[in-house]
Amino acid sequence: MKTTTLQLPEPLFQKAVAKARRLGVSQSKVLRDAIEKDLSGEKTKPSMFDLMADMCGCIKDGPPDASVRYKEIYRQAIVKKYGKNSR
């Protein structure tokens, strides 16, 4: 592997640092992957996680297991709002 140096604007550098931390990989890997993707001409849609990454963990109040128990939580909310016999 060859070594190179590049200069990044501060906002771009911070995005690379944040993504590396989020993925648990090195900054070099994040930058290599981004360059590889650009040079290969891939035009892929961002994943839902990529689109929502900055929102993950932003809600302080709420059930911590809502993604697993969503049906039960939804049912409880309906019963609370409309009563036991609503369908």
What is the overall pLDDT average?
84
What's the β-strand tally?
0
Overall 3D form: elongated
Instruction: Give me the number of helical elements.
Output: 4
Structural classification: mainly alpha
User: How far apart are the first and last residues' alpha carbons, in Å?
Assistant: 63 Å
Number of domains: 1
How much helix, percentage-wise, in residues? Answer: 40-55%
The amount of beta strand, in percent, is under 5%
**Helices and strands, in N-to-C order?**
HHHH
Determine Rg (CA atoms, Å).
21 Å
Model regions low in confidence, pLDDT < 50 over at least 5 residues? none
Descriptive notes:
With 87 residues, this protein is mainly α. It contains four helices and no strands. The longest helix is centred in the first third of the chain and has 14 residues, at 10-23.
SSE layout and pairing:
Elements: H1 10-23, H2 27-40, H3 48-52, H4 70-82
Helix pairs in contact: 1-2
Question: Notable features of this structure?
Answer:
mainly alpha; 4 helices; 53% helix; 87 residues
Write a brief structural summary.
By secondary structure, this protein is mainly α.
